[in-house]
Design brief:
Number of strands: 7
Radius of gyration: 18 Å
Number of helices: 5
Distance between the termini: 16 Å
Helix content: 25-40%
Order of helices and strands: EEHEHEHEHEEH
Largest sheet: 7 strands, mixed
Length: 185
Amino acid sequence: FPWIEMSVTAEQRLASPDEFAGDLSIRMGQGPWKELDCTPLMDDALYPVVSHSLIERQPTTGAFDLTAKTLLHDRDPQASWQTWQSRHGPDGLDLKRGPRFASSDLVLRAAAQGLGVALARGRLAEGDIAAGTLVRPFGDLEIILPDAYWIVKPSDKPDRRAVELVTEWLKSQANQQISGELGSI
């Protein structure tokens, strides 16, 4: 739709409905949110990632040992190491140690630089994994996050045709990615 002009902004904080400046937003988290029109877009998965250089510097004998590595923490409550530990262990994992980052992309960048092991959101990490920058030391072991991404719109604002078209395009791209037909949106 070349006639649709898009303006993309990224913010860490959630705007309240009265502050909502755009026609739509893609929100990551546990929706739906009050006073907003919320449509689930796609699921996500959490899994540990690490750089090749960290594995080479701190080789393990046998299974990859999380307890011997620096954990990189995302401030996103859905992407906490506590979630991983409660599902997959190990019991001796010290969740208090390791730096905390304000955004998921910073956590992935720190992992790619060999600073520790990140608990990655799969949708954000798949490009780095495909490029070989990051590896999954536990293979396919993961935690599924249902309805992790949402299309969010002000509920008191009627959709214009351009917003309807972009919304449908986003849904189709997400469905193609889920089906494995796309590398990324």
